[in-house]
Structures are given as C-alpha cells and as structure tokens.
Specification:
With about 160 residues, this protein is α+β, with helices and mostly antiparallel strands. The chain has two helices and six strands; from the N terminus they run αβββββαβ. Strands 5-4-3-2-1-6 form a six-stranded antiparallel beta sheet. It is globular.
Length: about 160
Amino acid sequence: MKNLKISSSILSNQKNIYLLKMQEYEKTNHHIVICSANYLRLKKILKNFSKNKIELNRKEKKSRFKAKFLLKKLSKHTTDSILEFSNLDSSFLNVFNIEINIYHDVELAEVKSLNGFHPNKFPFQSENIPKSEDEKSQQNRFLTEVLDTILTGDFYEE
C-alpha cells in the first residue's frame, strides 16, 4: 500500500511538471516555426544562397528603400548574414542592421542581433536597459516583417 502511494505521488508530480512545461514547449515550437519560415524567405530572396552579396532596391513615389545582404559561409551547415534595411527618405530610424544565423542542415534562420542588441537568454532586472522576456521572439517576428516587405514590395537587384 505504501508503494502504491509513492507511485501515485510520483505520477502526480510528473503530470504537474508536464503541465508547467507545456507552455514552454508551445513557445519553442512557435519560435522554430518562425525561424523555419524565415529560412524559406531568405532562400527565395537570396536565390538559394548562391551569392555572397546582394543589393535590392525599391523606388516608390513616396519613398526609396534598400536591402543589402552580406553572407559569410562559416561551414557547410552554417552561414552568417547581415541585412541592412534602409528607408533612404527617412531621417528617423532609417537603417536597421539585422545579424542572422542561418542553419542549412535544419533549415532555420534566427536573429543574432538587431541594431547591435542581442536578445536575452534569461530576463535580468539588474540591466541598465532591461529587455522584455520575449525579446528574441520579437526580433525574429520583425525579421519576418522585413523579409515579407522585400518579397512583396517589388524590390529589384541592381
């Protein structure tokens, strides 16, 4: 009878741990989906990663945009990329610099930093400029928006 109570207690604790972790798994799955979709967007923009540098422009009546990609192949499976996205007619936040880690073996593209700000792995309250807990997710979603703008915005290569 004592062993049955112990087993029951262990199972109960495992269920509670699983329920606590479930929300974290959902965040992780969502993050992987975003990074996977960003990889496919980059693959399309960069013509299957065949070039080390590409400059795209878009001229509109109201504004001019430029997207410049620099790629550095680190290994067969990994590439670093820097994306400079500019609104040439704006003086306020006219350039975004996005460093991207591209993993070809798992087909993921993840933001390393945005304008020099790296996302936290853990929330720290003691920082001079505290970041939100979902900073990493926000940066990857922002990359999604930028890549979608490039894909749907009539950008052309010079």
